[in-house]
DNA sequence: ATGGCCGCCCTAGGCGGA
């Protein structure tokens, strides 16, 4: 089973490059974040005619929003709210034997201080809630679970273009990294990218729109993640690093998202 | 040198992104 995750930054605006990606990479399942539309505005027909007949969408006007589209049937669609907000940041579904959680974690604003910036406080609270959700009963047993999405944290030194310069920049601050690591540890998750491609190799999935030339300046961050439960570790890693891919070429496709898609082949 | 940008929405500047 091939799984893809992509923060698309408006699925309506970018439906053509979504179709191009699906044709090129042919994932079985695609998890989208920041669809930025209501459920009734989601390009369901276009995706269906591209072969992705099964769809689960949690959208709202303008902001955030997540979706799962699949060539295989989706079962047990589950939409959860976090931090007392109905802001469309999670959707889960079962694909075959695999339960797939798709997250869009809050970006957190500019100031990395929860007392001065309520967006940052929200982000920290959200990360704690994700850890709590999977603690113990979650991935500890034999359950085949995958967690993907734009987690808005680049945890490792080589997940950012400059560890030193980003230590006080939201997405790479120690407090966020600690909470993300706690979520991984509590849920017994495996961060597949780093399992297959250890540091010091640099891995980025996002490049700012503000760079004149994103490729030459290459000030990226690894914000998009694929985690698997222990029951899927072998399926994710048995075929080596080729199973995992960051599709950097998509950053240059017409009117690109600032995130690129990431894929993982599970050998089930 | 992080900001030189982007997309959304009660179409225009404010908000959110990261």
Overview of the molecule:
This protein is an alpha+beta fold. Helix content is 25%, strand content 24%. It is built from eight helices and 14 strands. It has helices at residues 15-25, 44-49, 118-134, 163-166, 174-187, 192-196, 214-217, 233-237, and strands at 2-7, 29-33, 54-58, 66-70, 74-78, 90-95, 98-104, 145-150, 190-191, 206-207, 220-221, 224-228, 244-246, 262-265. The strands form three sheets. A six-stranded mixed β-sheet has the order 3-4-2-1-14-13. The chain has a six-stranded mixed β-sheet with strand order 5-6-7-8-12-9. Strands 10-11 form a two-stranded antiparallel ribbon. A hairpin with a 7-residue loop joins strand 3 (54-58) and strand 4. The N and C termini lie close together (7 Å). The chain binds one DNA strand of 18 nucleotides through residues 9-10, 13, 34, 36-37, 61-64, 107-110, 119, 152, 165, 169-171, 206, 208-212, 219, 221, 223, 258.
Largest sheet: 6 strands, mixed
Quaternary structure = single chain
Q: What does the overall shape look like?
A: globular
Mean pLDDT: 96
Spatial gap, N to C terminus: 7 Å
How large is the radius of gyration?
17 Å
**H/E order of the elements?**
EHEHEEEEEHEHHEHEHEEHEE
Secondary structure layout:
Layout: E1 2-7, H1 15-25, E2 29-33, H2 44-49, E3 54-58, E4 66-70, E5 74-78, E6 90-95, E7 98-104, H3 118-134, E8 145-150, H4 163-166, H5 174-187, E9 190-191, H6 192-196, E10 206-207, H7 214-217, E11 220-221, E12 224-228, H8 233-237, E13 244-246, E14 262-265
Parallel strand pairs: 1-2, 7-8
Antiparallel strand pairs: 1-14, 2-4, 3-4, 5-6, 6-7, 8-12, 9-12, 10-11, 13-14
The protein binds one DNA strand of 18 nucleotides through residues 9-10, 13, 34, 36-37, 61-64, 107-110, 119, 152, 165, 169-171, 206, 208-212, 219, 221, 223, 258.
């Amino acid at each position: 089973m091939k799984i893809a995750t992509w923060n698309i930054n408006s699925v309506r605006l970018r439906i053509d490059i979504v179709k191009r990606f699906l044709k090129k990479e042919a994932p079985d399942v695609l998890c989208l974040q920041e669809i930025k539309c209501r459920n009734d505005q989601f390009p369901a027909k276009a995706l269906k005619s591209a072969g992705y007949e099964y769809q689960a969408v949690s959208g709202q006007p303008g902001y955030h929003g997540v979706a799962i589209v699949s060539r295989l049937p989706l079962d047990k669609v589950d939409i959860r709210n976090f931090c007392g907000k109905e802001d469309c940041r999670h959707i889960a579904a079962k694909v075959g034997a695999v339960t797939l959680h798709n997250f869009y974690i809050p970006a957190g604003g500019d100031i990395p201080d929860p007392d001065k910036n309520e967006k940052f406080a929200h982000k920290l609270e959200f990360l704690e809630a994700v850890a709590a959700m999977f603690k113990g009963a979650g991935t500890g047993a034999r359950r085949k679970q995958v967690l993907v999405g734009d987690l808005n944290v680049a945890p490792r030194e080589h997940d950012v273009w400059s560890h030193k310069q980003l230590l006080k920049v939201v997405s790479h601050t120690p407090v966020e990294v600690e909470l993300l690591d706690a979520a991984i540890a509590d849920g017994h998750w495996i961060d597949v990218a780093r399992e297959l491609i250890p540091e010091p190799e640099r891995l980025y999935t996002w490049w700012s729109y503000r760079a004149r030339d994103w490729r030459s300046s290459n000030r990226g961050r690894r914000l998009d993640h694929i985690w698997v439960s222990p029951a899927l570790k072998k399926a994710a890693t048995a075929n080596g690093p080729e199973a995992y891919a960051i599709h950097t070429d998509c950053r240059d496709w017409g009117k690109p998202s600032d995130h690129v898609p990431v894929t993982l082949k599970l050998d089930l």
